[in-house]
Amino acid sequence: MMLLEHDAKALLGEAGLPVPQGVLLREGEPLPPLDQGVVKAQVPVGGRGKAGGVKLARNPEALREAAKAILGMTIKGHCVHAVRIEELATFALEAYLSFTLDPALALVTVMLSPHGGVEVEDEATRGDLQREIVPLEAEAMRAAVRRLAERMPPELRAPMAQAGEALVPAFLEHEALLLEINPLFVRTDGGWAIGDAKLVVDENAFPRRPRLVQLIEAQADLYPEAALKLAQGFDYVELDRQGDIGLITTGAGLSMQLIDELVARGRSPYNFCDIRTGQFRGDPARLIQVMRWIAAGPNIRSVLVNFFAGHTHLGEIARLLLEAREAVPELTAPLTARFIGNGLDEARAIIAAAGDPIAIETDLERAIDLAIARAEPEHA
Ligand code: GDP
Ligand code: MN
């Protein structure tokens, strides 16, 4: 997951790297008493500058205007709920520096370019991008930085080598997948500072990274999905608040497939869900939680359940589904379950004994068609 710039800079600053001073301002909070600064949208995407999400302000009035304009803006589908207000940096040049991990090969691509800033992907300057692929290892990465820096214009060689070498431990320490500094501000005196930081961390490393976990848990409003996953141990994402079909599914792949199938039929599903049936351990808590979230959707008319029981048992899943349904009476939409795998007969018997509150299908197409039909207004 990508950290917000404000947090990436906080972590880099804690590691002693030169980061301009900045404060986070959330929607609705009073503006800090500053005379000037750069106001930057805190959304986990690049290209904020080009989208109008980065504004320089040279007086308090301009600062207020900039914060007002950027808060509430939507950039690449992300609503801006917070901005970072940072001291204005003075610099002569904007350079580019990044480390990208290939996790399958444990190789890191080190990239340096004398042309950073918002135009870094321009054809005109792409030829100046220098890269090397080296093992995920501090000394190899530092050596690559030094070699690449030698291919930069003379005034950039020393600052870029210093910056790159200083960033290697931060990249390794946070088990990053990507650390991109763009722009890397370089001053005429050879000093440098981190203009923007894109830090993508590996969620699988969280059990070893308490500082990252703490950052996310303390700001659940800014990292809703990651905070949820940390708290619940499974993935749930609201896709379309107006969607009319809720999904209770296990396995990210199965859930994505279902979303594709529904979208191909012109539907807009409410949510993505990888509930991980293997971790139920006889407890309906996860099902109850997901049913509550789905019940909160304003237009939910149908719920599609899709469980493949490989090392789990559909009999147990059916029992837990009934228990969860009892616990969430506000979920009034009909449940259609596509069950396949171990314990199908037992699941059918359990649902039948309860008066068939859940329609069971084994065929995926039929389950999808039925769930869609049950979402139609005439069905009610
Ligand atoms: P991105 O577009 O999401 O990558 O956002 P950046 O943080 O990279 O900001 C975009 C551009 O804003 C940078 O390339 C700079 O040109 C400019 N910028 C950001 N901070 C400052 C600053 O403190 N001073 C000045 N003069 N420009 C800045
Ligand atoms: Mn940038």
- The span between the termini is 41 Å
Which structural class should the secondary elements be placed in? alpha+beta
Query: What kind of sheet is the major sheet?
Result: 6 strands, antiparallel
Low-confidence stretches: none
Assign an overall shape.
elongated
Would you report the number of β strands?
Answer: 18
Q: Summarize the amount of helix as a percent range.
A: 25-40%
Overall pLDDT level: 94
How big is the Rg?
25 Å
Bound molecules: guanosine-5'-diphosphate, manganese (II) ion
Helix and strand run: HEEEHEEEEEHEHHEEEHHEEHEHEHEHEH
**Beta-strand residue fraction:** 25-35%
Count of helical stretches = 12
Please provide a written account of the structure.
The chain is α+β, with helices and mostly antiparallel strands. 35% of the residues lie in helices and 26% in strands. The protein has helices at 5-14, 60-70, 123-126, 138-149, 154-173, 210-217, 224-232, 252-264, 285-295, 314-327, 344-353, 364-375, and strands spanning 22-26, 37-41, 54-57, 74-75, 78-79, 82-86, 93-102, 107-113, 130-135, 176-186, 192-194, 197-201, 235-238, 245-249, 271-274, 302-309, 335-341, 358-361. Strands 7, 8, 9, 10, 11 and 12 form a six-stranded antiparallel β-sheet that branches. A four-stranded antiparallel β-sheet has the order 1-6-2-3, covered by helices on one side. A hairpin with a 4-residue loop joins strand 7 (93-102) and strand 8.
